[in-house]
Amino acid sequence: MPKLCVNIDHVATVRQARRIDEPDPVAAAVLAELAGAAGITCHLREDRRHIVDSDVIRLMQTVKTRLNLEMAATPEMLSIAEGIKPHMVMFVPEKRQEVTTEGGLDVAGNLQRVREATQRMQASGMLVSHFVDPEMRQIDAVGECGADVLEMHTGAYANARGAVCRDELMKLTAAAAHAAENGQKVNAGHGLNLRNVLPVAAIPMVRELHIGHSIVAHAVMVGFERAVREMIEAIRYADSLSKRYSPGQILAYFI
Ligand code: PXP
Q1: I want to staple 69 with a disulfide (CB 3.0 to 4.6 A). Which of 3, 86, 179, 198 is the partner?
Q2: Which of 70, 94, 151, 208 is flagged as catalytic?
Q3: What is the Cβ-side half-sphere exposure of residue 53, based on CA atoms within 13 angstroms?
């Protein structure tokens, strides 16, 4: 059975909407581990739109399983990774304007640069993963770079419907088999949710699934009713306190 690594970026997206300190992605990482996650993943983007540098440091101090850092293989990110030393670095392509990671890394087209970055991270003691589309030439290129593992981009499959979705699943299955024949380790992720994860989790060679957005989206829904009930409880509690204390006294005690 593939293991689950939980990407907590979008907990930080909600926080950054207000630029305050909640919700805390590190607290989400702890809860994910308590729920059985085998690893925690975060993406430090060049524009710091969700995860910020201090999150990665705090995650590294807190995570008990394994911290995977997604990042572009740029000079800035390579030195940050060398400073923090997450357990695994995952090279992804990054475009400033994109909403999310569009397409896999073109390892075949940037072989020397990606190989050098891979070796540099490995020399610092980190495992390295490359996020690639399920194409044989990219998978072979990951092998040529000596990456420890590859992650197949499941976004095209997740976005497709009907016969196209089936074709995309077949591509993932064939790519995973090809990688396994090469002796490569295969993970998968992007756009997976409670329904479309089922066929991908059934591909025998897939060792880990990296899932983020749908878990955060689902958490908002399954936790929303409780959050509203607890706020009503807090307001009711304030009402009972107000019979004995002034707002200033309540502030001094609670804030
Ligand atoms: N794997 C990689 C390499 C990614 O870039 C992402 C998105 O940050 C994911 C997995 C998780 O994708 P999603 O948030 O759609 O589950």
Answers
A1: 86
A2: 70
A3: 11
